[in-house]
Design brief:
The chain has 616 residues and is of the alpha/beta class. It contains 26 helices and eleven strands. It starts with a helix and ends in a 10-residue tail after the last helix. Bound molecules: 2-acetamido-2-deoxy-beta-D-glucopyranose (NAG) (6 copies). This is Exostosin GT47 domain-containing protein.
Length: 616
């Protein structure tokens, strides 16, 4: 009985207007026969169609049908439909999906029709389709495959650069006088962002390759270095990562003082709107995108919309949470910003300039055991700068270059570099934020840095500096200095001269990785800070893509512990308690969410002070 009620209704649909046939067995078989051939034809033209160009049209219209009918069919075709959803979106895929739905649909409605017939019809189609359906395809697989092409030197390393409208970059350079209220940035924009050349009157620098570079110039230096990258591509489908040449640091610095939050956030909103309309965005929701903001992360992490709060909220925007942003100081508790070195004054144009500099730093006389360039922080009870300055002043082994307000030697690149070149160790306590440009200037001079907080370098520049921090630096936890328990001089004097020599050699070997080469030329074999950063981004995106394919993304990842993940050794994937936990624990008000905290709020509030001097 049921058969009769089902089958005719199907007929009515299929052969509109045809009169109801008599319920004879003959007619039934004839119908089946027709259906069979319809399916064979369908299968032949649609599934096995040799001309791929002919397919999209059919696919599109069928996809629409499939979409309309999807809900009630899912249950019928459980087995067949399970795979497709993952595939949706791929050009190949919809065809497979539709075919699976369309073809059997007719069959299923006839489910009580003699089993043998149904089996014959359904089986070949289903088997063929199952074989044809790709396992699980992702649009970025083409890019991953380029790495397997042995004859392609750029395989797996292509970068696609968005062609942003000039308001996101070039226009800002034209309006350079408005980039900062404290400094006229115009002169620093010369020479592709390196600034004016430094003359070598004191014989401290080399004769070429030295510039009075502003510490916040990485936006433009990095952007110009990218123009020289050897594996740029116009084809985003083979790109290992996508670069967004937005001058994020310049954008925010224009509005840091005296502008409302609407003004400060305008650039980021505009950028994100632009990016999200691009087809490249949809490939990974922006997770293969990266950009540079040559300032500290706190300038882009405004916690609330209070007008008195510092900075813009770029790094809190959902789109920016998917991207990777390179900054000169990252947030230890966040996963979307990564620290890259501050620029130094040295921007060599060729390998040879670097080798000569390294040789010179190896052979220098270093009369001072340690030195410090900087200003105290009398308003900050937690700062150890006052203690360090006192210790330095009272030690005959220490050279001090005290920075006070106004002009002082502490703002002269030549005086600073000269002091670092005459010292074995250079003290690098926190300033108004964890990091300082000075750490890189001192390493460039072959001076072994002494850090007092792991946030000043060890959890920051994990791409550029060795994980084994004792190989190139000395760590003196700041608590001991603050309590007056620790003599820096004693600690440094107790290090064996052979060890000092080894550490200095390591520092000098690190020089290429922590400097930005002249963006108008290219180092032949050496990898500079730019090269290291780009290859780290590529590794990161490549790993993410592989994890997505193998469905092994770390579901337990807790962003608040970002700094611990950064310290993991190769292959390690789980984190636990860490000896530096006390340095990064923070009271966390619930309403502020995991993204915020007291330390970051404080750092943000203090970050304006950094603008006023390189070495402060
Ligand atoms: C491999 O790379 C070479 C050089 O770029 C290119 O000509 C060739 O088409 C690539 N092969 C494949 C299969 O993509
Ligand atoms: C923010 O400042 C701009 C210009 O300084 C002004 O046009 C705008 O109305 C201000 N917006 C708010 C919400 O105060
Ligand atoms: C961020 O990426 C996720 C995962 O790909 C995606 O679901 C989400 O839509 C993306 N966010 C934005 C703002 O595009
Ligand atoms: C770290 O470096 C120091 C000095 O080079 C060395 O003695 C030590 O064995 C290294 N530690 C590890 C874990 O490699
Ligand atoms: C410094 O010394 C005092 C007294 O010996 C001790 O109580 C304190 O814990 C020490 N501080 C540190 C950071 O070692
Ligand atoms: C952060 O902590 C300090 C004391 O360490 C306190 O004075 C300040 O109010 C706190 N700030 C916030 C935003 O909670």
């Amino acid at each position: 009985m049921r058969r009769r009620s089902v089958l005719p209704s199907h007929h009515d649909d299929a052969e509109k207007g045809g009169g109801k046939p008599p319920q004879s067995r003959l007619c039934f078989l004839a119908t089946l026969c027709v259906m069979f051939w319809v399916l064979i034809f369908y299968f032949h033209f649609s599934v096995l169609a040799p001309d791929p160009d002919a397919r999209p049209v059919a696919v599109a219209s069928q996809a629409r049908i499939a979409h309309d009918h999807l809900p009630d069919r899912v249950s019928n075709h459980d087995g067949l439909l399970r795979a497709p959803p993952a595939v949706v979106g791929m050009e190949e895929a919809p065809a497979a999906v539709v075919e699976k739905e369309e073809a059997p649909a007719a069959v299923v409605e006839k489910e009580d029709v003699p089993v043998a017939v149904v089996g014959k019809e359904e089986a070949p189609a289903a088997v063929a389709e199952k074989e044809e359906a790709p396992p699980k395809e992702y649009p970025f697989q083409r890019a991953l495959k380029t790495a397997e092409n042995a004859s392609d030197p750029c395989g797996g390393r292509y970068i696609y650069v968005h062609e942003l409208p000039p308001r996101f970059n070039e226009d800002m350079l034209r309006e350079c006088h408005s980039l900062s209220v404290w400094t006229n940035m115009c002169k620093f924009m010369s020479n592709d962002g390196l600034g004016p050349p430094l003359s070598n009157e004191d014989g401290v620098f080399s004769n070429t390759g030295w510039y009075a570079t502003n510490q916040f110039a990485v936006d433009v230096i990095f952007g110009n270095r990218m123009k020289q990258y050897e594996c740029l591509t116009k084809d985003s489908s083979i790109a290992a990562a996508v670069f967004v040449p937005f001058y994020a640091g310049f954008d925010v610095s224009r509005y840091l003082w005296g502008y409302n939050t609407t003004m400060r956030d305008a650039g980021p909103h505009d950028l994100v709107d632009w990016l999200r309309k691009r087809p490249e965005w949809n490939v990974m929701g922006g997770r293969d995108h990266f950009l540079v903001g040559g300032r500290i992360a706190w300038d882009f992490r405004r916690l609330t919309d209070e007008e008195s709060d510092w900075g813009n909220k770029l790094l809190f925007m959902p789109a920016a949470k998917n991207m990777s942003m390179l900054v000169v100081e990252s947030s230890p508790w966040n996963a979307n910003d990564f620290a890259v070195p501050y620029p130094t004054y040295f921007h060599p144009a060729k390998d040879e300039d670097v080798f000569l500099w390294q040789d010179r730093m190896r052979s220098l006389e270093r009369p001072w055991l340690f030195s410090f360039a900087g200003a105290p922080r009398p308003g900050d009870p937690m700062s150890i700068r006052g203690q360090l300055i006192d210790q330095c002043r009272t030690s005959s082994f220490c050279k001090l270059l005290e920075c006070d307000l106004g002009e002082s030697k502490c703002h002269s690149p030549s005086a600073i570099m000269k002091m670092f070149q005459s010292s074995l160790f250079c003290l690098q306590p926190q300033g108004d934020s964890y990091t300082r440009r000075s750490a890189f200037d001192s390493m460039l001079a072959g001076c072994i840095p002494v850090f007092f907080h792991p946030g000043s370098a060890y959890v920051q520049y994990t791409w550029h500096l060795p994980k084994n921090y004792t190989s190139y630096s000395v760590f003196i936890p700041e608590g001991g200095v603050r309590d007056g328990n620790v003599s820096v001089e004693e600690i440094l004097r107790s290090i064996h001269p052979d060890v000092v020599k080894q550490m200095r050699e390591e520092v000098i070997n690190l020089i290429p990785k922590v400097i930005y080469a002249d963006p108008r030329s290219k180092l032949e074999t050496l990898k500079d800070a730019f090269d290291v950063s780009v290859s780290a981004i590529i590794n990161k995106v490549t790993q993410l893509r592989k994890d997505i394919i193998s469905d092994s993304e770390d579901k337990d990842f807790t962003e608040e512990n970002s700094w611990k993940y950064e310290l993991l050794e190769e292959g390690q994937r789980t984190i636990g308690p860490h000896e530096w936990d006390p340095f990064f624990s923070k009271p966390k008000p619930k309403d502020m969410g995991a993204d915020s905290g007291n330390s970051s709020a404080e750092a943000a509030k203090n970050s304006w002070k950094i603008e006023r001097g390189d070495q402060n």
